[in-house]
């Protein structure tokens, strides 16, 4: 068994014992989290964290659910400010495996729980469900966890018939990195998991990273020729010029055929809350596209 695996199990086991506390103990009231997928899940459970990392950037890249103005910023997601965390006097600190090296230090501030939505193996949808329920139990809100799981399933049920017209062709989902390169989401990503549950075919079937994406040049989007492309905001300024008049961009089959759409921001590394938002965003896009086709025919 690898030391890393032992460490992860030890963190979770130790945190579970600490969090259990004496019988009848009050659930933690002040929670600090660094990963945005954890933060959005806490908010989805009705738990407003006392502190989080990179709050301003969260508002730009994640957006929903909104973070109340009073939530303290405790530094960077991978380099939190430990003094700022300690000043908040948290009852619980939630980390991901990427921060396990800091766990011994953080544990001296408050009980620390390590949870991961993304892992090298397994199903990201199921892990998102498990993380939601683990957070619900840790914060004394098991019923809120049940409601969040039910809401996620309901969001898929509501979106499925609306997005059905998109099932006619494979679909690329991408974010611009710069003027000539895109991050494309494939197997192992949250987006791919949701697409599968909605009956949609992902045009990107090549191997992807740990997080379920690959980065490459625009020219790789030329096949399959019948694919459509949906691009997530925010789009970097230099890529805006590509969308307006880039010669390589204009030669892509989906661009020439008008099979390109722009979507509002959705956090690709999130959990059930991002999954629900993505389902709604896809449904909105499908409904708008259908209405536009109807206007053209009219």
Low-confidence stretches: 1-23
Element order: H for helix, E for strand:
HEHEHEHEHEHHEEHEEHHHEH
Sum up the overall morphology in one term. Answer: globular
Mean pLDDT: 89
Describe the biggest sheet? 5 strands, parallel
Helix content: 40-55%
**Beta-strand proportion:** 5-15%
* Radius of gyration, whole Å: 21 Å
**Count of individual beta strands:** 10
Q: Describe the strand arrangement of the main beta sheet, using strand numbers.
A: 3-2-1-4-5
Q: Number of helical runs?
A: 12
**Alpha carbon gap, first and last residue:** 65 Å
Which secondary-structure class do the elements indicate? alpha/beta
Explain how this protein is built.
With 298 residues, the protein is of the alpha/beta class. The protein contains 12 helices and 10 strands. It has helices at residues 3-20, 36-44, 55-61, 82-87, 103-107, 124-138, 142-163, 190-197, 237-245, 247-251, 253-256, 272-297, and strands at 31-33, 51-52, 72-73, 92-95, 112-114, 171-176, 181-185, 213-217, 228-232, 260-263. The strands form 2 sheets. Strands 3-2-1-4-5 form a 5-stranded parallel sheet. It has a 5-stranded mixed sheet with strand order 8-7-6-9-10. The longest helix has 26 residues, at 272-297. The N and C termini lie far apart (65 Å). Mean pLDDT is 89; it is low at 1-23.
